[in-house]
Design a protein that fits this description.
The complex is a heterodimer of chains A (about 150) and B (about 500). Chain A is mostly helical. Chain A contains six helices and no strands. The chains are: A mainly alpha (about 150), B mainly alpha (about 500).
Chain lengths: ~150, ~500
């Protein structure tokens, strides 16, 4: 077996697995009947349909020739890991340390994901964006966002 | 003379100071994100959704609408000046617009795009005002079976007309529908697929999906590409006014583009993107005057036609959303979300229950378009300056707004974590060549579709043939099937693939 389209091979597999997963998960709920469809009725059908379509995509990927093999290419681990972890870190720190600390932290860490990184730029960015966010979101739109760390506000 | 009465009510609403300000704000913001490559209207509207909690419904929707059509204007500026379409709908504008700029005619190209868009925007507004009420009448006759079939048609249409691989796009719709099933079942009250996480019993926030996939996913994808060298034609933007001959060439193209865009915008899956591609093809096929510049080398018709079409399409794509409550594209899906946040159930009843909102929004589109011409033509210099902002300043700002936005959605960091998860999923989709827009549409329509399906089955006592025996429902389903069949035909399939390759 030779994979003829890498992208479709993996996406087909993804659809197949997710579809089956939802269909299997739906079996926990009552299926009902056609006349009185239960909570499992719609997701079970959808899950199976997705699995079938996914299988089709997958099958095509090992049978239908493509010009360049639809290669996935290398994965950009650096931006992927840095951006997502900076977001998670923001989620963890915001309720505890407040916007005044967690936002500059987020901006500086996220900036590491770029090709070029200069401390001066990152800090400048952090100051402008933090002050700007405070003005727009807290002052302007009066949204409820913790500003100061909990150890200061108590 | 209902139309005039309605429009005057609308203009009364649109011309209040607050609403003018929000229309202006939306237009400015829209131009801004249109100019900045790598940030589209979907991510921007998603970022702003949490902040509309603080606003009234009418100004909020006026602002969001302004962002959408504003981005169409801004996108053409970058397409013409640096050959980088700031927005996907202006991809074709870049072909001839950039060539005009290289020949020192950037001013004429920008003016053709701006004035063409304005004209199209005016016509689009009138089309909405004229067609929305009759369509609403039809919508009131719809039962659950018809609504279900209409949503099937809408979802199928959305992918048939507007994406690359058909089968993968349908898979993405199904995936979106399934993600929409993670919630508490409305009829039985059973929490589904929540994996015992209490936050998930309310469902995944669609803002988390939109921001994660369209905001963060795009950023990661952008950062993985080498920084592009940009060539900006700023010095050449003198002589903004086109020549008489330009006007003569561009005017018919604008008319054709407007007509095409207005029609395509109403179709499911239509809107700005499809309209601009279709208009460019039409202009290429239409014979111009003798001795005009060939297409691809700076023909003004290649700028005016698609620009008029994408703006007209952007306007008329509001029609299905406003009248039926069914979003034809991802931006409209977010508008539906915005209305829900403000406690308005989108659908045919909006026009009667919230006439100020409905007609005010429509009138504001005309006002916004007028503002955009002023913003874009005389102030073009400011926007050009913005192009010199490096991406390393830009993406941390997007990250910041997405993070704050996702937190304030429910004042809970759970949504921030969900957004992070969808950032990874979004990058995965990018790598696997799966387009995320159909997923978002499916996600929005999922719960509505299920409810209508189950209600239709309840009414028919479990008889599935109800979808085929009710004439309206049957013809909607037949139209959906027809679309799939037509696209599968070998000759059309080949042409379609060529069209989408041009897009890359």
């Amino acid at each position: 077996m030779k994979i003829k389209s890498q992208k479709n091979f993996w996406s087909g597999l993804m659809f197949l697995v997710v579809g089956l997963g939802f269909a299997w998960g739906a079996t926990e709920y009552s299926f009902g009947s056609s006349a009185r469809p239960g909570p499992a009725y719609f997701p079970f059908g959808l899950g199976l349909l997705l699995a079938i379509m996914g299988a089709l995509v997958w099958f095509a990927s090992i049978t239908v020739e493509t010009e360049d093999g639809d290669r996935i290419g290398s994965i950009a681990w650096r931006p992927l890991i840095i951006i997502t972890s900076s977001v998670v870190m923001f989620g963890v720190t915001l309720p505890r340390l407040g916007m005044i600390i967690s936002l500059p932290l987020l901006i500086c860490v996220a900036a590491l994901a770029g090709d070029e990184f200069h401390w001066k730029d990152a800090l400048l960015n952090a100051v402008i964006l933090t002050v700007g966010s405070w003005l727009i979101f807290i002052k302007g739109l009066s949204l409820v966002i913790p500003l100061w760390p909990t150890f200061i506000t108590g | 003379m209902d139309l005039l009465n309605n429009l005057s009510l609308g203009f009364g609403v649109a011309f209040t100071l607050t609403n003018l300000l929000y229309a202006f704000g939306g237009a400015v913001l829209g131009t801004l994100i249109g100019v900045l490559p790598g940030l589209g209207p979907v991510a921007t509207i998603a970022m702003l959704l949490p902040s509309i909690y603080a606003l009234d419904a009418t100004p909020a929707l006026i602002m969001l609408a302004g962002i959408y059509y504003g981005s169409q204007y801004g996108g053409s500026t970058t397409a013409i000046l640096i050959n980088v379409p700031g927005e996907s709908a202006s991809v074709v504008t870049a072909i001839d617009g950039y060539q005009m700029a290289r020949k020192g005619r950037a001013g004429a190209a920008l003016a053709a795009a701006g004035l063409g868009s304005f004209f199209a925007g005016c016509v689009g507004t009138i089309v909405i005002a004229a067609f929305a009420p009759p369509l609403t009448e039809v919508a009131f006759k719809f039962g659950p079976a018809e609504y279900f079939s209409l949503m099937v048609l809408g979802l199928i249409g959305a992918v048939v007309l507007a994406s690359g691989s058909l089968i993968k796009a349908i898979c993405m719709i199904l995936l979106g529908l399934l993600l929409g099933q993670i919630n508490t079942d409305v009829i039985s009250g059973v929490p589904r697929f929540s994996m015992d996480i209490p936050e998930l019993t309310d469902g995944i926030g669609f803002v988390a999906i939109a921001m994660g996939v369209f905001g963060f996913g795009e950023i990661i994808a952008n950062l993985s590409r080498p920084a592009e060298t940009r060539e900006v034609f700023t010095k050449h933007v003198s002589g903004l006014w086109p020549t008489k001959q330009d006007f003569k060439d561009a005017a018919p193209a604008v008319l054709r583009g407007t007509a095409l865009g207005s029609v395509l915008g109403i179709l499911p899956g239509g809107g700005a993107l499809l309209s601009s591609f279709a208009a460019y093809t039409l202009e290429k096929k239409t014979r111009g005057r003798r001795g005009e510049v060939p297409f691809g080398q700076g023909n003004i018709r290649g700028v005016a036609g698609p620009e008029a079409a994408n703006n007209a399409g952007a306007q008329t794509s509001f029609i299905p959303m406003l009248t039926l409550g069914i979003p034809p594209n991802a931006v409209m899906a977010l508008m539906v979300g915005a209305m829900t946040i403000k406690g308005i159930q989108p659908g045919p009843q909006v026009m009667t229950s919230n006439p100020e909102l409905f007609w005010g929004l429509i009138a504001s589109m005309w006002v916004g378009n007028a503002m955009l011409v002023i913003l874009n033509l005389p102030l073009i210099g400011i926007w050009i300056k913005l192009l010199t902002v490096p991406y390393r300043f830009l993406f941390p700002a997007i990250v910041t707004f997405c993070c704050i936005g996702s937190y304030t959605l429910n004042n809970n960091n759970f949504d921030v974590f969900m957004t992070a998860i969808f950032a990874v999923i979004g990058y995965l989709f990018y790598k696997l060549g799966c387009e995320p827009a159909p997923l978002l549409l499916g996600f929005i329509l999922g719960p509505m579709m299920e409810e209508n399906l189950r209600r239709a089955l309840l009414l028919s006592r479990g008889d599935w043939t109800t979808f085929g025996t009710r004439p309206l429902s049957a013809s909607l389903l037949a139209a959906a099937a027809l679309m799939v069949i037509v696209v599968m035909l070998p000759s059309i399939k080949a042409k379609r693939e060529v069209a989408f390759q041009e897009e890359d």
